[in-house]
Amino acid sequence: xxxxxxxxxxxxxxxxxxxxxxxxxxxxxxxxxxxxxxxxxxxxxxxxxxxxxxxxxxxxxxxxxxxxxxxxxxxxxxxxxxxxxxxxxxxxxxxxxxxxxxxxxxxxxxxxxxxxxxxxxxxxxxxxxxxxxxxxxxxxxxxxxxxxxxxxxxxxxxxxxxxxxxxxxxxxxxxxxxxxxxxxxxxxxxxxxxxxxxxxxxxxxxxxxxxxxxxxxxxxxxxxxxxxxxxxxxxxxxxxxxxxxxxxxxxxxxxxxxxxxxxxxxxxxxxxxxxxxxxxxxxxxxxxxxxxxxxxxxxxxxxxxxxxxxxx
Amino acid sequence: xxxxxxxxxxxxxxxxxxxxxxxxxxxxxxxxxxxxxxxxxxxxxxxxxxxxxxxxxxxxxxxxxxxxxxxxxxxxxxxxxxxxxxxxxxxxxxxxxxxxxxxxxxxxxxxxxx
Lengths: 312, 114
Known about the structure:
The structure holds 2 protein chains of 2 kinds. By secondary structure, chain A is of the alpha/beta class. Chain A has 7 helices and 15 strands. In chain A, a hairpin with an 8-residue loop joins strand 1 and strand 2. Chain A is globular. Chain B folds into 2 domains: about 1-30, no CATH class; about 30-115, Cupredoxins -  blue copper proteins (Immunoglobulin-like). Chain B has 2 helices and 8 strands, in the order ααββββββββ. The radius of gyration of chain B is 14 Å and the shape is globular. Chain B is an alpha/beta fold. At the A-B interface, loops of A face strand 7 of B.
């Protein structure tokens, strides 16, 4: 167990007590908007009964078969087995993109077959790997984006929390980072306008909305503009994938968090010649893959995320 | 790659023309019109060819990449899986900037001369 961040004693609405790591994951509870960690799964469970718990999985890369993990479908299945073993069923799941490796129908079929075994509703946003079919994302949109806008963005409400799924992997510009684009930004501005500042906001997208590491393109060009529309809200949580590792940052009322992949790890920023798949010893792989369990508690100003590795 | 480029440039100066240098370099290396994608970068990042040359990109990474021209100056490739290649024949002189449309930090250029 290790605590990775702690801010305390200023104001409960701005406190992040983060985060006890344990064998099964990181659990967030949100209440009235502020993140707080719960130490162990038992404690998390108790909290969860009074609020909303949902799950995040990311970067399944079904179809990937290279040395970093020759069986990405197998580890996705292990992740879903882990989901099914949770003591309390989450309300739903979000998938933050790169469901498939190459946007092939069979890859999506295989992913759907495994993920559906969770019997949870799944809210998807695409990663860049999901939009590289000949029709640039038609397969993805037909499967997962029928009611979404544009390239696949949308919002919904659950237990008083406003969820916003964004797409930042389309129309990328030479030399740049992830990209939301004007049409989506305008939609976002309208989507949040008129909502009470006390509404907890959870934004999810594939590429981190903040710049994790510029040299590897780990950020979103116009992410700051998106966040500017969310300034008035007391609690904003941004959940991303793409970088296949847990990185977290808290800035004012905004908590940023990236989830592990279920397929293969990637190196820490700048520690390798490139961000490509990282081959680790076989007995280490499952410690670097996993899922994230997120719990929202009403009226308690608390949010908790538990990242659970597949093993260890 | 730096050393052979410098060497051929020096040789080019003897021949008396930078163009000759790049052609000479091309012939000396044997693969002037080939770009390798490895470690999320294009190698060489800058290639100079004569008009009518077919340039071929080959992806050696474990992750797919895609070739897209800035301003769509030439057609973009489909996504290239490991060991996939994309070729395009440049007939019109000019400088063509391109990038990976999946990882846009990856950039390169093709200079096409008469």
